[in-house]
Amino acid sequence: MPFHNCTEFKTADFFYTQNPTPAQKIDVHLALWASTLLKHGDAPPFADHQDLYATIDAIPLGEVKWECFSCSYTGEKPEGSYPPWMDSTFDVWYRDPHQVVRNMLANPDFAHEMDFRPYQEYSTSGEERHYRDFMSADWAWDQADIISKDPDTIGATFVPVILGSDKATVSVGTRNNEYYPLYLSIGNVHNNVRRVHRNAVAVIDFLVMPKIIYGLVPYIADYEEQVLLACIVRRWCPMLARFLDVKHIQKNLLVWGHIWNCGTSLEL
Fold first, then answer.
1. 140-182, pLDDT tens digit by residue?
2. pTM recorded for the entire structure
3. Within 10 A of 180 (CB to CB), how many other CB atoms are there?
4. Which residues of 6-33 are buried (b: 16+ CB within 10 A; e: fewer)?
5. Of the candidates 96, 40, 36, 93, the residue with the CA atom closest to the CA atom of residue 68
6. Cα separation of 208 and 169, whole Å?
7. DSSP label of 189
């Protein structure tokens, strides 16, 4: 942690979390604090707001940060027409899988729900084998046998990395983009923990596949234009399809200048 003592932490927490304070006022507070400590040859925890912000930014993140790289097709393109993806650039967002696995292994919530070595479990009669978690399977046992043959890996813990993917469509505020997330888990964690996630399953990669769909947006028109487009006579409402007197038209002329829904008008 970047804080040297409890006073530094509580000061940062007060200015940044409990009582969010503008940078200028932080400088004023710290300057007044410094003036009271000057005669003692001491100084406040932070010199100014920049020192405070730099200390907060130095706090290590609990989650593995996301990074991004772009990729595109660099091979030969056929003559004439060819798929548009050959000219496109795709963004790939990812997190360091090694660091994600290390965080899972270090998670104290899994301390009593994790197997650090393969095992075989049988019934009390010894005739029926029980399979439950990943490390109880034959594959994990066989991998441990292979690892044990290398003198440099004797005593090491085998961590099976489990990957999965599933296309997901996100439509809220993202123009109906399709995402191909890549999920990661480890075989050491018990199945009951993985089913309820509890940070035992993490997204480590996103490949975005954009979709572009053109649609007819609401039509904006004043009353005179609505009458023309709805094929009705004047003094009829294009939305309600009923006769209106002149006073009603004059009173609601501004209201009829609202966004006119094409779908509703077509039903008339």
1. 889 888 888 888 888 888 898 888 877 666 555 545 566 678 8
2. 0.54
3. 14
4. eebbebbeebbeeeebeeeebbebbeee
5. 93
6. 10
7. B
